[in-house]
Amino acid sequence: MRRKSISECVSRVAEKKHRFSFNVMQGLFFVLCVALSVVGCGSDANDAPKDISREEAAPFPAELVRVAAKKPAPQFELTTFGGAKWSLSKQRGTPVVINFWASWCGPCRMEAEYIRNAFEANKNSGIKFIGIAVQDEPDDSRKFIKEFKWSFPSGPDATGEIEKAYGAFAIPKTVIIDASGMYSFEHLGVITEDILSREIRRVLPVNTVAKTVRR
């Protein structure tokens, strides 16, 4: 077997170091992409991506957070895009799903169909849904609602106080409030139908059977 020269060995080592560095950079880039997909959009519309479709980003759902020590949900009221007044306090005795979203938020568009399907599957079980548009233009919000065929009420956070109260500084964010008005569940990032439907069942009466839509 021919012995390799020193120059050949040095060249081989340099080549391996280059490959290692490239692989490390690939790994870091992948982790960054996953993190961005999970966390979603910052709630500043000026910095948000405008044209991300569901096909352009993989749906990496964030880790769910089931609230261990329950606390009262902040009260709020808003005027829906349909012109009706909606108040959380008036929903006492009924579980509520709150979804923070914006038309300019790519991950919000990714999960919009999942939110709609979960609502349609559970709308006769007694749970209420409310969508809250964050830092969005009203006309764009209405187009979003029409595009994804949302039939549950949705309205703007006109003052930013609801976003602040619920810590929705990145969206999408989904919060489930139980019938007693306490936090039950929070989820930051794209939520799936399976996770949402499962958490909805946790806050429904035991004798309520909710149909679950699975993709």
Description:
The protein is α+β, with helices and mostly antiparallel strands and 215 residues long. It has two domains: 6-39; 54-203, Glutaredoxin. The protein contains five helices and ten strands, in the order H-E-E-E-E-E-H-E-H-E-H-E-E-E-H. The chain has helices at 6-39, 106-122, 138-147, 161-165, 193-203, and strands at residues 41-42, 65-66, 77-79, 85-87, 96-101, 128-133, 154-156, 170-171, 173-177, 183-188. It has a six-stranded mixed sheet with strand order 2-10-9-5-6-7, with helices on one face. It has a two-stranded antiparallel sheet with strand order 1-8. It has a two-stranded antiparallel sheet with strand order 3-4. Helix 3 (138-147) links the parallel strand 6 and strand 7. Helix 2 crosses helix 5. It is globular and about 40 Å long. 33% of the residues are buried.
In short:
The protein has five helices and ten strands. It has 215 residues and is of the alpha+beta class. The protein folds into two domains: 6-39; 54-203, Glutaredoxin (3-Layer(aba) Sandwich).
